[in-house]
Amino acid sequence: MARNVNFEKLAVQRVQVWGATVEYEPSVFGGDGTEPRRNIVLAISKEEQAAFQLLEQVVDPKKLNSCIKDNTVKAKMTMESVSVWNAAKDPLAHPQQWKGCCVNAVIQMRGMWSSKTQSGLSLELTDIQVLDKAVAPQCPF
């Protein structure tokens, strides 16, 4: 059964995120890792969460599918067009491992999507500055 989703373009607004942590490898549900457009989830501060919640006020609260869950924000990232920078502000190739990286990011609100039962913001990560590479987890034993 196809789901009818509408998109409403809104004035582009940017939120800068500082010192966030990439929670998971960018991916798509049911994907194989080669998709050009993927979801990225960043752990962010309470202040940054409040900025996104302010943007969400345009969405019907009864239908809201929030971009904020468990102190994280979820956005889309187009792999070929996202600009990646290092801490010295020089261009950088995409990290081999995103999960665990400490980053600064620019996330743009492009609009609002809605279906019969849910609505939410369309967020796109456009720039990301990798501050520290991910550290492999240490064995706790």
Overall domain count: 1
Topology, number of strands: 7
CATH class category: Mainly Beta
Order of secondary-structure elements: EEHEEEEE
Major beta-sheet overview: 7 strands, mixed
Shape label: globular
How far is the first residue's CA from the last residue's CA?
48 Å
Walk across the major sheet and give the strand order: 3-4-2-1-6-7-5
Number of helices: 1
The second-level CATH architecture is Beta Barrel
CATH superfamily: Nucleic acid-binding proteins
CATH topology: OB fold (Dihydrolipoamide Acetyltransferase, E2P)
Kindly estimate the percentage of residues that lie in beta strands according to DSSP: 35-45%
In round numbers, the mean pLDDT is 92
Residue stretches low in confidence (pLDDT < 50, at least 5 long) are: none
Percentage of helical residues? under 10%
Based on helices, strands and strand pairing, what is the structural class?
Answer: mainly beta
